[in-house]
Request: fold
Amino acid sequence: MARSGSSGRSYEATPQDAPLVFAIDKQGLAKLRKSKVMVAGATADASIRRIKHVYYDTHDKRLARRGLSFNILHTDGRFVQTVTAGAADDAGATPIVSETEVSGLTPQMDAIAEPDVRDRLGFIAPGTLETVFTIDVQREQRLIEVRAGGQSSFISVAVDTGEITSECSGAPVAEPISEIQMELIKGSRLALFRLALDWLKAAPLVLHSNRRPERGLELSEGRPPPWVKSNVVRLDPSMTVEDAMSHIFSGCLTQITANQAAVLEGRDPEGVHQFRIAVRRLRSAFTTFGPLLAGQALDRLKDDARWVIQSLNAARDWDVFLTELLPPVVDGSDGASFTALEHGARAACAAGYDQARSMLHDDRYTRFMLELGLWVLERGWRREATAESIERLEASITGYASPLLSKRHKTALKRGKGFDEQTAEERHQVRIALKKLRYLLEFFEALFPSHKTKNYLSTLKSMQDDLGHLNDVATAERLVMALMDRSKADAPVEMAYASGRLIGWYAHGIQSSEVHARRDWKALKKSEPFW
Amino acid sequence: MITILVANMKGGAGKTTIATNLAAAYADNGLKTTLADADRQRSSLRWSRTRPDTASPVTGVDWTKQFDDVPKGTARLVVDSPAGMRSKRVDDLVRLADVILVPIVPSVFDESATSKFLRQLQDVKPVRKGKRPYALVRNRVRRRSRATEHLEKFIDSLDCDAVGCVFDRAILPEVAADGCGVFDVGGKRGQSLREDWFEILDFIEARV
Reply:
């Protein structure tokens, strides 16, 4: 189960029938209207209607706490009251739902016919349900037919413009909605991706997630969109290599998308951190399965993935600097001033986040994610695969995992030979090798007994942490040098002094990190490979 | 199913009033409600049997001898416990419950018995571990009386939640005689009567 910050909710992998959602701004919409894509393949004129969703709860938000959603939909002159218990984020649980026509926007408890739903709501005095937030959009909807390979697929495309409104601590809050939702009604999901890619040629589309009710609740509580930690990859020993690979790629896609909002919002460093982890895992998956994948499509995807992660490096570097590297030095210093350094770092961090946001708004990112989704969906690697590759793809994943793990393990041990006397550069190579081993282990964790994998991973993680600490001095140097270079500093002497203190702090820290590292390397060498 | 135990060692604190009105509240709200009477006087049981057909139904069960099964599909079980309960029975009923309400009236004679009962409650392990939320319920309160002020001071001295303020109203025994509670009273009059009870009902709902 994925864990996430600031909302405590969990996300499962995107269900196969989830719609594609994009954000688009006014200019983008204008461009779309000028182009032909909006009407190409449309089966009829657009239907235009207003859709208003009002969400309710008790004054003490009991329903939300119980995982219940109570809302009334108002559209086409009708009012539909829906109570959902056990929303889609509860793993495996089928949501219990009550849906009835009501006469207006006033909650009608006695209209609920299902006793189990009524019980879950508990005691609610008549008239005491309050509006928590409202989602109000104008929807322009068309059914579009996409023909490919003699087959027809039907996709509903809805352009929603409007807003989410709520009240937080007594003050009104609002967030605009300007989105396009594409949902497959009938046919092949491939058509959905192809349509999206076509539309992308006509106007800039920014990938978005379909989480309006969650956003409404967050607005009412003044919370930013949460970051999401990755699911443990749950491979089944009975899977083929190809199935396992698809599963891993899909998981990465889900985690990347799930963390977009947190990166854009930019308040919590975990957003960028988790987003980068997801992209690194994706790149690691490209390498892990590399020998079996081939083709231009893959090369482009690899390039794009590298571009994505590079666009986040600055934000991550400066987040780490501000939250991990700088604070202990400031705390441990006697009156020395770090203000100029911190100021410079914050500016650099803000610039880093600007870069991250630009990347997410770039067409290249949207296209990358769509093409990746399409590639995984249609098993694009088969197109240019040899017969031998196909055979290996269809073999069991356990047969593939073990030799690969052994190979990576061997490389890591080899790189670390004579660890105690190694140079920083050599240690850096060890660090890279261990990272590769770690990703591999995380992918294949579910194929082996859990206590064995957990023990080994724990030993590996200790070693990685040590190498990380040893590297702090190099990181600190790199970052402060960047600051010194770029700043036409108001306080160059102060900054230089602070920089010196910082670097000195971590240079000194090497001594104890070195002891740990040597000890942990011995432990790692002794650890029996369990695969 | 959520079980609410209404208990106090001291007789006359109004357990039956609280229990029956809660049951009526739940029934009126459309939740399947059972009222279990563990008191030999069986006042709650009689009340549920007197309940008119026009009122939302409450099923009464006799728990004076043993804790029988409760009708299937019960959403709210309200238990009216006897005064002067022996320790073993307190334990058993407390373990069964999800929330415990301890009615208290503004009377100095009630105070030491109530304190003693609260200590008895704390002796039950699940309560000590915080797994059985409980609260005092102010009952038979008269506005601006010295006894009421005294009650508040007493409550402050205890380390315990206190919810609700059921005012001493003539209508309460009147409707009770007809097998009804304030939640069965219609119109504006019913509305104002019910307000005394919302804090109690919120307390229960928030903890389960």
Q: What stands out?
A: The mean pLDDT of chain B is 90. The beta strands of chain B are 2-6, 33-37, 58-62, 76-80, 99-104, 134-141, 161-167.
